[in-house]
Design goal:
The chain contains eight helices and 18 strands. It is of the alpha/beta class. The protein has two domains: about 190 residues, no CATH class; about 100 residues, no CATH class. The strands form three sheets. Strands 3-2-5-6-7-8-9-10 form an eight-stranded antiparallel sheet, with helices on one face. A six-stranded parallel sheet has the order 1-18-4-17-16-11, with helices on both faces. Strands 12, 13, 14 and 15 form a four-stranded antiparallel sheet that branches. Helix 7 runs parallel beside helix 8. The radius of gyration is 22 Å and the shape is elongated. InterPro entries: P-loop_NTPase.
Length: about 400
């Protein structure tokens, strides 16, 4: 089947996902659970340089384009939605909200400016849309939120009184009263709060709860990753063994994963052998006497290469491979603990997915990502400067952001 190559504009959501054949270094793909909620579209109606943009998201999606076309801002919008879906306050999701306001946006008569983002999550409740309007100036607050399914508005909020720190909400009931109204805070999304406000006694209420829970589960398990080799070269303090976004504590995580899961560690070694120069027998980690952890590549015959001596691209390749081969228990993410693991998927937001990699490393890393995403428990949205090298790779959706 042909590869998807799409511009960053509204497109149908029923495009089939493409798949890659499993390789010997990764166990055969498990059946994708049909009820696993997943985000299938990201919408940036008015956000930084984006206007009326919609990006289809498959199991493995690459946002391709030149510098400044908005790849990183799209990933940040997804990360912000994930934080909000987990119940975070606006200030945590948008630490610099003014930077999210569309370029050249003019304030209204009340000197207000803001932005609008949204997404679609598919799952057992069918496609569910979430659209959010945020005021960035003069103060950060939600001014509108809409949750819909099959054209039916399940939740709608609006800022009626700017003097109150609340929005007026209305959610679908379909009982003796068709709509229930009440205030919700204006510093966070209402969707993750619905399970606390909706009783679930009527079919309409249960439909609202199902849609809200599907959106929250689809969004909240996301890991933004942009490895920083400069922080990965030196020994690091022993800690929790959970990988941070910049992967600066890579040695500490290798110390943990090597001891806890020999099978996954063997897969990592095979991936490093395929993508890094020179012989690779093992990837080692050692605990130093001063409480720090150091890592090295075992070249065989008693020869080791410390991480500090690896190239920029080798370190980024190693970090991304580790991310793909682990999961929420190793990465610093907030999974939905109340939902069975079989119904969850982790979304990796990989900025600069091809940065610093040579052609072989790009090919090997993309193949590993396609095989892992085929298993269903991992999805990946990556930003690349050029998507042509991924052409012909099954299982990959390429979205070009800089096409006219």
């Amino acid at each position: 089947m042909p590869q998807h190559t799409l511009p960053g504009r509204p497109v149908p959501l029923d495009r089939p996902a493409l798949r890659d054949r499993p390789a010997a270094s990764v166990p055969p793909a498990l059946p994708v659970h049909p009820d696993r909620p997943r985000v299938t579209e990201l919408r940036l109606a008015a956000f930084t340089s984006h206007r009326r943009a919609a990006f289809p998201l498959g199991p493995l999606t690459l946002l391709a384009g030149r510098s400044g076309c908005g790849k990183t801002s799209a990933l940040r919008a997804y990360e912000a939605l994930a934080r909000l879906g987990g119940g975070a306050e606006l200030g945590e999701a948008f630490p610099d909200p003014v930077a999210c306001v569309p370029e050249r946006a003019r304030p209204d008569a009340q000197r207000r400016r803001g932005f609008r983002i949204g997404c679609t999550a598919d799952g057992p409740a069918g496609p569910v849309r979430l659209d959010v309007a945020v005021q960035a100036e003069p103060e950060l607050r939600v001014v509108g939120e809409r949750l819909t399914s099959d054209g039916l508005v399940l939740l709608e909020t609006a800022l009626r009184d700017p003097g109150k720190r609340a929005v007026q909400a209305a959610w679908h009931t379909a009982g003796p009263t068709s709509v229930t109204r009440g205030p919700l805070p204006d510093d966070r999304l209402g969707t993750p709060l619905l399970p606390l406000r909706v009783a679930g006694k009527t079919p309409g209420q249960r439909r609202v709860l199902a849609a809200a829970e599907q959106m929250v589960v689809a969004l909240r398990s996301a890991f933004a990753c942009d490895p920083e080799p400069s922080r990965m070269r030196d020994p690091v303090a022993a800690g929790s063994g959970r990988l941070r976004s910049g992967c600066g504590n890579l040695a500490d995580v290798l110390w943990r994963t090597r001891a806890e899961c020999g099978r996954r560690h063997a897969q990592l070694v095979a991936a490093v052998r395929a993508g890094c120069g020179g012989p690779v027998v093992d990837v080692l980690a050692r605990l130093n006497g001063n409480g720090t952890v150091a890592a090295a590549v075992d070249r065989g015959g008693g020869h080791h290469t410390d991480l500090g001596l690896l190239g920029h691209g080798e370190l980024r390749y190693l970090a991304f491979a580790l991310v793909l081969l682990t999961g929420p228990g190793v990465l610093e993410v907030d999974p939905a603990g109340e939902v069975p693991a079989a119904l969850q998927s982790l979304t990796i937001l990989a900025d600069g997915f091809d940065r610093g990699l040579d052609p072989r490393q790009r090919r090997e890393l993309l193949g590993l990502a396609a095989r892992m995403c085929e298993r269903g428990h991992i999805r990946l949205v990556g930003a690349v400067s050029d998507g042509s090298w991924a052409a012909g790779t099954e299982g990959v959706t390429v979205v070009h952001l800089d096409r006219d």
